[in-house]
Design brief:
By secondary structure, the chain is an alpha/beta fold. Helix content is 56%, strand content 10%. A hairpin with a 5-residue loop joins strand 3 and strand 4. Helix 17 packs across helix 19 and helix 19 packs across helix 20. The longest helix has 22 residues.
Amino acid sequence: MSDSNQYEFLWKRILEVLQTSMSTVTYSTYIAKLVPVDVDGTKIVLKTDTEFFANYIGKSLTQKMKEAFKKADTGITDFELVVEGNDEVFFTSAEEDEDDYSPVAVDPRFTFESFVAGKSNEFVFAAAKSVAKNPGANFNPLYIYGGSGLGKTHLLQSIANYIALHKPSLRVLYTTCEKFINELIDSIYLGKGNNRDMQARFRNRYRGVDVLLIDDVQFLAKKQAVQEELFHTFNVLQAENKQIVLTSDVPPKEIATLEERLRTRFEGGLIADIQPPDTETRIAILKQKAFERKAILPADVLEFLARDSGTDVRTLEGKLTKVIFASKLHEKPITLELAADALNEAVSEEHEAVTAENVMAGVCSFYKITKEKLLSKSKKKELVQPRQICAYLMCEILNIPLVSIGEVMGGRDHTTVIHSRDKIANLIKINDRVAKEVEDIRNIILKQ
């Protein structure tokens, strides 16, 4: 077997694993285009077209690639990247290990160009773009908050993608609050005995970046040790004029038991809220999403889908997905009638603004329970799921803060609302019965 055939054979085995471990878009955009050109011991040398691709792969996909090497069991443990037309090594994964740098992968589709800005989000969009263009110069920290599904993660990852393209020398770390918490716990637990450098490595990773992006910091609630660690990380980065961007479902003052000193740090830059999109913006979002999926939607269908689509973009996108699927399934063009059938909604439907009382009444009517039982502290299964569905539908339909939803639902904490919302959102994807019940209740509510 020639050398070139050997590289291709090894790389083909690795590709088989990589293809199953990441999204189709990421694989086809970044991995499929790599060309193996050499093997040096346990390292494979891969060639890519541009520095942008090499930079993105090195910063965002290293961990997945190394996991694939291990699963493929070819003897390859590391990789180097070279750029077309340049023989010098642009990136080596072995050096990354020395710094223990492992960010959460950033979705390349999340860019400022693919984000639809309207009246409800133009201010926060401009702030995010300003930070991306001049990290550390303005709005430090930038704290973005708003309901689920409104584009906070999209903006956060747009910042990461913009800097990777225009300022590749800067080190950007995008992570979630949950991952930050888990890594801190691991560093403490594994730091016992002979591994006392684990905490130092954890701190070096988060404090050695130029831009730190943390998603969903509301999960800091009631976690004092994590708040302590983030406070010191915050101080180190800010003292060195490094950029920090945070997102949350709520403003800093509404995060339960958030230490005062950390709250003042969060409030020391720019706090920007992202509001639910108005009708015009929802239509613009639908046009963008339809374009991305190469689907053609007439104006009346766009207006129909934009109506009664809840307060977040995910619900809007979910409706679009159903309609496109129905069109492909029946091999028919998208029309108003097809869209109405796909969503099981009446074209002429009109109703007053939905309230929290409407949502609770709809849930109680469907499950034949009283409002008192719905809002009680009972842990009975026949009450827990209706209560979670009620919280989910309030998040989907009502334009009110999570804290307000918690208050309406018997004085519950906003983190309980988040848990309920996410629990039902996940169940809908895998449980047809729950998905149908939620849709039936939604129809009851909207037709009241």
